[in-house]
TrEMBL record:
Superkingdom as given in the UniProt entry: Bacteria
Phylogenetic placement of the source organism: Bacteria, Pseudomonadati, Pseudomonadota, Alphaproteobacteria, Hyphomicrobiales
Keywords of the record: Hydrolase, Signal
SUPFAM superfamilies: Duplicated hybrid motif
Protein known as: Murein DD-endopeptidase MepM/ murein hydrolase activator NlpD
Species per Swiss-Prot/TrEMBL record: Martelella mediterranea
Domain M23ase beta-sheet core: 142-239
Keyword Signal among UniProt keywords: yes
Annotated signal sequence range: 1-20
InterPro entries (UniProt xref): Cell_wall_metabolism_enzyme, Dup_hybrid_motif, M23ase_b-sheet_dom
Molecular function terms from GO: metalloendopeptidase activity
KW Hydrolase (keyword) present: yes
Amino acid sequence: MIVKTKTLLLIALLVTVASCSTLPSGNPETQARNHFVVQSASGDGGASDTGPDDRLRLSYASPAASGEDSLTGASSAFDLIARFGNSEINVYRFKDPDSGRMAFYDAKGEKLGQYLLRNPVPDGRKTSGYGMRRHPVLKTTRMHAGVDWAAPVGTPIYAAADGIVRFAGRDGGDGQQIVIDHGFGYKTAYSHQSKFAKGIKSGVAVKQGDIIGYVGQSGLATGPHLHYEVIVNGRKVNPMHVHFIIEGQLKGRDLARFKTDVKRAEAAS
């Protein structure tokens, strides 16, 4: 079986692999661009989350050699490697046992949903990372359970992924805060805002890239910035280490079949 490998510049990371359950026939490279790259980083001024080292590498079987379109046929997976800076994720196409439709999984058999933006403030400057630090206001050493992105007051803040607003109000030291529930145990929180976007309130549905509020200095803050948190199953995790929303896990025979397909894809790459 002939395998082609392409390196695709990831020009945008509003990536929604959940929308790729069915892929039209055609050039595989074009399909990867159309389905994994949703919005240009320099296109309409919306949210972007790319770096110069972000790449997609797609390995696929040539239809001429296999007698079928391996992107749309059910017999084999293809191997997509998404590289985010120094972090690399192998992504495999496999039939979802619950829906019967094609979906995307990592090497462990975890079903990959929507890509989660690491920086909801375009052109924001990272001033503080996730981990223990001395609080600039309280002057005590404590856990900093998110990432701070400095930007001028009034800079738009974008929703990191699709979801439902669960909270929009003032929350003590976090100041004006929005919490979005993305389902599957994933939430994101956006603190120290100057104001919320029109119509943003609890219960409102938002899409990835929607403007939800504006950078400010409310609460315990020494300067205008967004304090951004990612919460997974009730635990605050490092936003820079979460790339996709995990929507499920293959088990039993499905996992065994998946691992067999993964070995085939790796052997072909």
